[in-house]
Amino acid sequence: MAHLEEVEGIVLYQRKHRERDFLVKIFTKRFGKIMFFVRGAKRPQGEIFQAIQPFTTATFIADIRESGLSFLRGAKEIEQKRDLQLDIFSNAYATYVSALADAAVEDRLPYPSLYHLLVTGLHLIDEGYNPEVISNILEVKFLVVFGVGPNFSACSICGKTKGIFDYSDKYHGILCSEHFLEDPRRLHVDPKAVHLVRLYSVMDLEKIGEISIKKSTQEEIKRLIDHIYDQLVGLSLKSKKFIDNLYKWEDTLRKDD
Ligand SMILES: [Zn+2]
């Protein structure tokens, strides 16, 4: 007899398999990420098909096998994220942070804090928070999960925690303005961007308030985080390239105004 578990989880993505079946990657709270096989039904509007839409959270009734594919038998307490599915920007960022969480840990490795971050972040984007800001916060927090966490807490040379800071590859973290000369090849990034990234690294995502960031600062935050990911993580995610292209299209559209 199959051993069924009730597991809380969030759908990272789904892929069609043959005509009517699906492969669905779910990040479960208790068992980590698991790939499920869902057999196509005669009623594609059924509960389980609502539950396997990307970014949906639910309590899944799952037949989890030791190896190979596992199976979904049902779902309850289904919460779909309509905005994430309909809005192109929200969807792009939600897809990216889900792929990032997927890349950060091995399958079947429980990681409740990462699970909680992803669920909270996607919920906030769905609620209408700026998807780029929420994604940046998750990117910064995920660095620790990737095992590369640069030092954002204090100057890497003197330990100073207040003042103006820049980012240095050489010192794997921030430098205060008194020590800028120690690394002529520091990133020369807007100190406001460094300040916000430092804030992101320690802030409690659940207690986020209204955040309004100037476009130029936002671009510097992106430059800083992209640089750190290129240097220390080295992923090549399609969903990230899509976002970078959205950026370019935005600029092109603005020039045409
Ligand atoms: Zn210093």
TrEMBL record:
<comment type="function">
    <text>Involved in DNA repair and RecF pathway recombination.</text>
</comment>
<dbReference type="InterPro" id="IPR022572">
    <property type="entry name" value="DNA_rep/recomb_RecO_N"/>
</dbReference>
<dbReference type="InterPro" id="IPR037278">
    <property type="entry name" value="ARFGAP/RecO"/>
</dbReference>
<dbReference type="InterPro" id="IPR042242">
    <property type="entry name" value="RecO_C"/>
</dbReference>
<keyword id="KW-0234">DNA repair</keyword>
<feature type="domain" description="DNA replication/recombination mediator RecO N-terminal">
    <location>
        <begin position="5"/>
        <end position="78"/>
    </location>
</feature>
<keyword id="KW-0233">DNA recombination</keyword>
<comment type="similarity">
    <text>Belongs to the RecO family.</text>
</comment>
<dbReference type="Pfam" id="PF02565">
    <property type="entry name" value="RecO_C"/>
</dbReference>
<dbReference type="GO" id="GO:0043590">
    <property type="term" value="C:bacterial nucleoid"/>
</dbReference>
<dbReference type="GO" id="GO:0006302">
    <property type="term" value="P:double-strand break repair"/>
</dbReference>
<keyword id="KW-0227">DNA damage</keyword>
<dbReference type="InterPro" id="IPR012340">
    <property type="entry name" value="NA-bd_OB-fold"/>
</dbReference>
<protein>
    <recommendedName>
        <fullName>DNA repair protein RecO</fullName>
    </recommendedName>
</protein>
<dbReference type="Pfam" id="PF11967">
    <property type="entry name" value="RecO_N"/>
</dbReference>
<dbReference type="GO" id="GO:0006310">
    <property type="term" value="P:DNA recombination"/>
</dbReference>
<dbReference type="InterPro" id="IPR003717">
    <property type="entry name" value="RecO"/>
</dbReference>
